[in-house]
Amino acid sequence: MDRHDERPHATGDGHDRRREPGHGAVLFYHSVGTDHGDSYGRTISEHRLALDIEAWLDRGYRIVDLTTAVETGGGGGRLALTFDDGYESFATRVVPLLERFDVPATVYVHTDAIGSSNHLTETQLRDLFDHDLVTVGNHTRSHPYLDRVDDHGTLVDEIVGARTTFERRFGVAPDHFAYPFYRFDERSLTVVRDSHETAVAGPPGHPAVGPADPLSTDSDPHLLPRVDGVTLSVLSNAGGCRRLLDGLGP
Ligand SMILES: [Zn+2]
């Protein structure tokens, strides 16, 4: 069991503690900026993310690493934070927040993006692999639509070859995978099952994912549903977070 699982967190006065959070989720983000929104509407501000983390902790949610969230099915209000695409803002804006709140997160990186504009550099990634609160996950080599990669050798290279590249460059082979664009098919799913411990997909109900259940002990560890943290934040200003998450499951 991870050291971040059962850590008690001080609950501030004035919050309703009669009902403990029952459901958990894997939340996903992309870049983190200084203000609201980007042209894709996928950026959350550093300030907003900090407020959200604080709000969840105050309301009894526990932010755990991905493995713990999967093993427990998110029960007891366990949340895992994930960040896709290896943006540089993960190192510059997210890691300071993780350290401030002492909570873990996973960042998914596609190897072709390392060192490119606005993305993590090799040096930053090296530090992240060494960071106690960070798990680096594999997001393929070139971020393709995996269900459109017809050649099996190319498919294996995108998934397993990228993992091997991490191992060669950083000395660690990631055990966790994220499907680019949340898209997969039976072939890519099979390759991922054979090479990684977990894999995250998209939001429940996303066309590429199907009407997935919220995170539970029945969740397929290689098709884990995720909740859009940016959307959740917009909805959660005054504690709607609990309502939304509690509304996810049975
Ligand atoms: Zn991506």
Automatic annotation (TrEMBL):
Keywords from the UniProt entry: Signal
Compartments reported by the entry: Secreted
Any one GO molecular-function label of the UniProt entry: hydrolase activity, acting on carbon-nitrogen (but not peptide) bonds
Chain spans, region Disordered: 1-21
Matching CDD domains: CE4_NodB_like_5s_6s
Pfam families for this protein: Polysacc_deac_1
Keyword Plastid among record annotations: no
A cellular component annotation (GO) from this entry: extracellular region
Gene3D superfamilies assigned: Glycoside hydrolase/deacetylase
Swiss-Prot/TrEMBL GO biological process terms: carbohydrate metabolic process
Annotated NodB homology domain residues: 77-250
InterPro entries recorded: Glyco_hydro/deAcase_b/a-brl (IPR011330), NODB_dom (IPR002509), Polysacch_Deacetylase (IPR051398)
Name of the protein: Polysaccharide deacetylase family protein
Organism: Halomarina oriensis
Taxonomic classification: Archaea, Methanobacteriati, Methanobacteriota, Stenosarchaea group, Halobacteria
